[in-house]
Amino acid sequence: MDTFTSSPVAVTGASGYIASWIVKLLLERGATVHGTVRKVSDRAKVAHLEDLARAFPGKLRLFEADLLVPSSFDEAFRGCTAVVHAASPFMIQGVKDARSRIIRPALDGTRNVLASVNAAESVRRVVLTSSIAAMCGDAADKTGTPITEADWNTTSTESHQPYSYSKTVAERAAWDMANAQSRWSLAVMNPGFVIGPALSSRTEGTSTDLVLQMLDGRMRSGVPDFRFGMVDVRDVARAHVEAVAREGVGGRCILSAESSSFPELARLLRERYPGLKTAPRGTIPGPLLYILGPALGLTWRYLRRNVGIDLSFDNKKSREELGMRYAPIRSAFLEQVEQLRALSGIEPGPASGSEAKPVLRP
User: Which tens digit of pLDDT belongs to each residue from 78-94?
Assistant: First the structure.
């Protein structure tokens, strides 16, 4: 579609970390947006969307919908030309009852959303937020060559890497439903580890909390040597919007700016705030991590197949078909750190060499 002015675009899970940026960029492009949330009355979760609604009068409508309730998206999708399905749980550590907390919302939620798409005769385009986790479960699965859109995760299960498993089965279900009809086309975005500032002041999200742990002392003793393809949340949102706009884009699309690691992020944090005594001191040695892992919700199998193993990702398709020019991970991370530091009241402390400690305000 050449413009966003002809009919609304729906975004599921509109209050979420990635989705709210998608909503903002769509509004800036002139679109009318139908955003779905669990509860419109939950101001703690929708306040930033209300701010967007005031900034773009008459352009953002919120609808209540539940991933596990069939037909609950019907009203939101009515009259829309495109649907961006971004709603899905993200939990990677110490997950209990993975089937009900992660897998069912991801899999049944995708089926319910696409059933509502099938019921909305106006929809011609669907963009699904998947993950690189649907391409590779453990770092050990793919070493030596870059991960590409042709790769599928075949090693994750309900008990091992349940989040990665949920993204895999949900994306496969989406392709099954897309291939069973001919009215709407499907494009799937597969981002790596997403970092960068949020539009909301909430800090409970998994990726946000992992960065906060580096700030507030929970990782003071060190960080594990986990390595990821990383990408700025604003680039992820931009890719979704371009996938809506560019009708020729189809299939899967890796979204990754560069490969980095938790030790590298910790180093950036120490360089930026040399007086922050709660910052991670370094990398947790492998033997110690195997001792601490179970208490952190990390199994020995997960550690064996992921610690210290490099990964690389081929982002050529996103650059060529979506026009992506990725922002540096350093700047995205430090912007997120500064936002979380301010929200949490964590003082950066004096320059390196002083023994004064940071203060966490109540």
Answer: 999 999 999 887 655 55
